[in-house]
């Protein structure tokens, strides 16, 4: 016995419009938002990786939607990120799990943003590898660009191209 008939076209179209309307669109603009970690925490000693992590959140497109409670959540998990950065050989699995869970709720990964119905447009005039930062933030953050692949390393050798 066949299943139920499909919904009428006008109902499917309105469902699609409703779902698309419910999305939050943000643009990656390179603007630093939120408080400085050192000032907000009152703690001067943070691992460099923790400062880079904090500044990445401040520069993220989803930071445009953050309320003070979201920044408080990040401030609460910053010590976890610091513990993980200071013990890279033996990180605490519970600290990693808690950090992952909290970052997930703020939209850290592409999959998280899909679940949150958030769409990030990259700004056409913004270089995502070198965001606009204040001089103080640049002094604390270290940005490392990946080395570009050369044509020699990207192309297989002639011996690898042999069919047999």
Give a quick precis of the structure.
With 164 residues, the chain is mainly alpha-helical. The chain has nine helices and two strands, in the order H-E-H-H-H-H-H-E-H-H-H.
Principal-axis shape: elongated
Largest sheet: 2 strands, parallel
Class from secondary-structure proportions: mainly alpha
Radius of gyration over alpha carbons?
22 Å
Assess the beta-strand content as a share of residues: 5-15%
Helix content: 40-55%
- Please give the number of β-strands: 2
Detail the poorly predicted runs: 125-130, 142-164
Order of helices and strands: HEHHHHHEHHH
Biggest sheet: strand arrangement: 1-2
Instruction: Please give the alpha-carbon distance between the first and last residues.
Output: 53 Å
Give the averaged pLDDT, no decimals. 77
Total count of helical runs of at least 4 residues = 9
Oligomeric grouping of the chains? single chain
Layout of strands and helices, then pairs:
Layout: H1 9-21, E1 24-28, H2 37-41, H3 48-59, H4 68-86, H5 93-106, H6 110-115, E2 118-122, H7 135-140, H8 151-154, H9 158-161
Parallel strand pairs: 1-2
Helix pairs in contact: 3-4, 4-5
Molecular structure report:
The protein has a two-stranded parallel ribbon with strand order 1-2. The protein has a domain at 36-140. The chain is elongated and about 65 Å long. By secondary structure, the protein is mainly α. The protein is built from 9 helices and 2 strands. Helix 3 runs antiparallel to helix 4.
């Amino acid at each position: 016995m066949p299943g139920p008939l499909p919904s009428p076209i006008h109902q499917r179209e309105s469902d699609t419009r409703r779902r698309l309307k419910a999305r939050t669109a943000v643009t990656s603009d390179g603007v630093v938002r939120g408080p400085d970690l050192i000032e907000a925490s009152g703690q001067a000693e943070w691992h460099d990786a923790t400062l880079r992590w904090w500044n990445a959140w401040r520069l993220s497109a989803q930071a445009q939607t953050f309320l003070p409670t979201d920044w408080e959540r990040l401030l609460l998990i910053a010590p976890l990120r610091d513990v993980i950065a200071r013990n890279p050989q033996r990180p605490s699995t519970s600290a990693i799990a808690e950090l992952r869970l909290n970052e997930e709720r703020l939209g850290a990964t592409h999959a998280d943003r899909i679940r949150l119905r958030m769409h990030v447009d990259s700004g056409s005039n913004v270089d995502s590898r070198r965001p606009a930062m204040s001089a103080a933030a640049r002094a604390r953050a270290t940005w490392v660009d990946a080395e570009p692949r050369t044509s020699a390393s990207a192309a297989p050798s002639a011996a690898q191209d042999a069919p047999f």
